């Protein structure tokens, strides 16, 4: 990839490293997706998470039932109202995930050099010699010498909580494996991953469809995280399913790339999906360790050039049990930002971790520091060059707004939008300043009742780097007279001042539609 887009100042002034980090209203331009679970589902904890920078709440349906997640979501709604911080909702599907069924929940100790049998008979009790699994076709899918990994959230870096097995033989439906390392599997849910083997199960299972059509429709989810996306057709089928659910036609699909199959078809998946989640836990098993970073850089670069959000997972695993990340993890977060990631997704760290709020805060601070040395100028020039000429009308307006903001050193770009597309295009050029997306609601009717659009569009920009939405008054249309635009602009400027990003004598670049014309204007704030 391009090694030239790392640092803004060469060399970085050592004095700047010693300066304390300054707190701000927007903790970082890079967004943080937090997974809500046992340790992070109370109103108090969710409120604290929102205050320190969580902008998307992820609901992982590989555990917990609909009622449990509904209760968590109701707490999220209460927290959003009390903190006045918008938060989007992401539903994460289970997909063709293989799991060990441990009904008793007792810890299972596995010793190196011993053997263990994997069986599809889920009525049997899990033990050190026998592990029941939720898939009947394992014996047909694997062969002698294949590698199988089992653990909670897969390798966390601790070899004592995940186990590495090697297939020695198959006996009818059972698979006999040699245990390669000693480990204790604690809890009731262990994921099972077979390295580089195709699993013949649908990407969107019947259980997933049931959850989406009930829980997803009821709560008008903003994002669907499509686990184990392997082909573009997976995304097309998911979109077709959502389109039949009325309320979810606007839901964005984020393809979760978890294995070699998804990596092989990455380009076509990217074309179909609204965004990409790089599931590095599973990818780290399917790929040799020395190749993982290469895939991350290549995938994030492709997402950036196509203007689609890239989300990176598994960054601070050790913070599940510790208050501080390791040196490697802190550097990993910074490198994800320097690579161009839009968001960092926290899984076990917030779901069952002991320090969900501190984890979000720490990741946000690292992101903010990395953003200071991201070479925005070079990135802008490369993006313009990549887009080429002639540009589309919208692309031209977006790049002009960013160029103007860079030249006049504007403190913020304000973009009026109804679909959110213009604001996302501006964010694609990665301006150094925040982009406030003023979403103008549109009135629609189904002949029976009136309703406003806009809330979906506002929340869906909460996963895009540098984009901060606010909902405008629905009485102000997006394409209107200068008088109504001025009143909406005044509200946006007040919001910017209240959040501390705009001060007196600052310059602000405004991008809006007046009649049929798109206008980019520069205003200087007076006392």
From TrEMBL:
Q: Where is the Pyruvate kinase barrel domain?
A: 30-360
Pyruvate kinase C-terminal domain location, by residue?
Answer: 395-515
Q: Which GO terms describe its molecular function?
A: ATP binding; kinase activity; magnesium ion binding; potassium ion binding; pyruvate kinase activity
Q: Tell me the cofactors it needs.
A: K(+)
Pathway(s) where this gene product acts: Carbohydrate degradation; glycolysis; pyruvate from D-glyceraldehyde 3-phosphate: step 5/5
Q: Which domain of life is it from?
A: Eukaryota
Q: Which reaction does it catalyse?
A: pyruvate + ATP = phosphoenolpyruvate + ADP + H(+)
E.C. designation(s): 2.7.1.40
- Give compartment(s): Cytoplasm, Cytosol
InterPro entries from the UniProt entry: Pyr_Knase (IPR001697), Pyrv/PenolPyrv_kinase-like_dom (IPR015813), Pyrv_kinase-like_dom_sf (IPR040442), Pyrv_Knase-like_insert_dom_sf (IPR011037), Pyrv_Knase_brl (IPR015793), Pyrv_Knase_C (IPR015795), Pyrv_Knase_C_sf (IPR036918), Pyrv_Knase_insert_dom_sf (IPR015806)
Q: Name one GO cellular component term.
A: cytosol
Which family does the UniProt entry place this protein in? Belongs to the pyruvate kinase family.
This chain belongs to which protein, by name?
Pyruvate kinase
Taxonomic source organism: Dendrobium chrysotoxum (Orchid)
